[in-house]
Design brief:
4-stranded antiparallel beta sheet; alpha+beta; single chain; 34% helix; 434 Repressor (Amino-terminal Domain)
C-alpha cells in the first residue's frame, strides 16, 4: 500500500526521505514489511504514521494492520529493584543501643551454637555405641537395612525376562518421533514469514513463489506466515496443506510431542 501510494504520486524514496526525514533503508523496510530491519516496535509505529500521513493514507488503519500482522509477544517482566535498595541503610539509633543489640545477638548465637554442639556430640556417641553392639553392621551401613538376596541384583544379571514379568520398551509405533522437520513451499505470489527454531529466530523475510524453506529442530518450531494461503506445509514428511487463506496471517507451533 505504501509503495503503490508513493509511485502513484510519482515520488522516489530519496524525495520521501528528504521530506519526512526518515532514512531510506527504513522506508524500504516499511514497504517490504521487513520490520526486523527497523530498530523497534515503537519506531515502526512512528515511522508508519509519518509515512502514511505524508502519502495521504489512513495512518491509524496501517498501524492496526501492522499490529495484526505482528502481534506483540509477551516478554517476561524484568524484576526491578525496590526503591532505595541501592542506598545504604541508615539507622538513627544511639550508638549505645546498637552496641547492646550486637552483644545480645552474639551471646544468643554462642548459646545456641554451644547447645547444638553438645547435643550433637551426645547423639553421635550414642549412635556409634549402638552400632558397635550390632554384629555384622558396618558404620557406613544404616542399621536395619536388609542385605540383597544372594544371586540377585538390581543390576542386569543376564537372566531371561518374560513379557509377563517386566514390561519392555522396544520403540514401538507409540514412541514419540525425535525432532521436527518442517518444509514450507511457496506455491504462488510471495509470502513474508518468520521461523523460530528451538527458541532462536532462524529466518525472517519474504520468500518468492516456487521456492521453499526447510527447518529442523530438536523440540519445536514456531512459524508465522503473512500470506498463509500460498504456502504448502510439510511436517516430518506429512503433507498438511495450507494453514489459512490468501492474505491471512497465521501463527503455528509444531513440537516433537504434538505432531501437526
Amino acid at each position: 500500500m505504501l509503495r503503490e501510494a508513493r509511485q502513484a504520486r510519482g515520488l522516489s524514496l530519496e524525495q520521501v526521505e528528504e521530506e519526512t526525514k526518515i532514512r531510506r533503508k527504513y522506508l524500504e523496510a516499511l514497504e517490504e514489511e521487513a520490520f526486523d530491519v527497523l530498530p523497534g516496535r515503537v519506531y515502526v509505529r512512528g515511522f508508519l504514521r509519518n509515512y502514511a500521513r505524508f502519502l495521504g493514507l489512513d495512518a491509524g488503519a496501517l498501524v492496526a494492520r501492522f499490529e495484526e500482522m505482528l502481534p506483540s509477544e509477551e516478554v517476561p517482566p524484568v524484576p526491578q529493584p525496590f526503591p532505595g535498595s541501592g542506598k545504604k541503610l541508615r539507622l538513627n539509633w544511639p550508638l549505645g543501643r546498637i552496641a547492646y543489640a550486637v552483644m545480645g545477638l552474639v551471646l544468643a548465637f554462642l548459646l545456641v551454637w554451644g547447645g547444638s554442639s553438645l547435643f550433637g556430640l551426645t547423639r553421635d556417641a550414642a549412635y556409634w555405641d549402638k552400632e558397635k553392639k550390632q554384629p555384622g553392621v558396618s558404620p557406613g551401613t544404616p542399621a536395619g537395612t536388609p542385605d540383597p538376596p544372594s544371586g540377585k541384583s538390581t543390576v542386569h544379571t543376564g537372566d531371561p525376562v518374560t513379557p509377563s514379568s517386566t514390561p519392555t520398551s522396544t520403540g514401538t509405533n507409540n514412541s514419540t518421533p525425535e525432532g521436527v522437520h518442517l518444509v514450507l513451499n511457496v506455491t504462488a505470489e510471495t509470502c513474508w514469514m518468520r521461523v523460530v527454531v528451538d527458541g532462536k529466530i532462524m529466518f525472517t523475510g519474504e520468500v518468492p513463489a516456487n521456492q521453499s524453506k526447510s527447518f529442523k529442530a530438536k523440540e519445536h518450531i514456531w512459524v508465522k506466515l503473512g500470506n498463509a494461503g500460498v504456502v504448502n506445509v510439510q511436517l516430518n514428511g506429512q503433507d498438511l496443506g495450507v494453514l489459512g487463506d490468501r492474505g491471512q496471517v497465521v501463527s503455528r507451533e509444531f513440537s516433537a510431542s504434538t505432531q501437526g
